[in-house]
Specification:
35% of the residues lie in helices and 20% in strands. The protein is an alpha/beta fold. Helix 5 links the parallel strand 3 and strand 4. Helix 7 packs across helix 8.
Amino acid sequence: MDAPVQELYVQELYFLPATTVKSWAETTLPRMQTLRNSKQLEKIPIVLAEAFRGHGIINKILFISHRWESKAAPDSQGVQLQAMQEYLNEQPNIEWVWFDYSCMPQWGEAEEDGRTESEQAEFDVMLAAIGDLYLTAHVLILLDNSYCSRFWTLFEAYFAMMKATPNGVRPAPDAERRYTIMCIHNAKEYVFEAKVGGHVV
């Protein structure tokens, strides 16, 4: 017998427990391989057919949309981590956090400290699913003055502001909004309102 449709389209990603992020005492979160090796990540399967309907574990997951401050240090001063902790402390329903630097295999600072062949394959599979997941999960947008100049951040913001329906993707009404925006660094509220529109925290 064929498997039910909802069981066919499953995406597995690594997540940090929200409790770990909230209690993280160092300045920034480390790269994924460090967290995985210390067994601080959980690999969780997401049934996308459920996620598209707003059901299941997707309601307990937070995706972070942020600008990398440099190639090797996406959050050099820990400002992004502080914003995540502030948000999570007010959202007890969130149990898992996805932060790309800490949840997808990354290159290290040394040239030889790169992704292995298996890590690259895993990275490619994860990257292909990003649109679906930003389209269904709660999203925290960490906005600075350079956010709107980057392709990936705008890609993530676009999907965070949309909703999957049987008739295709459409803008999500306010009552179904899944995203929150926090201004960090030198960002001003008018920058977001003029360029993107929406809710600013």
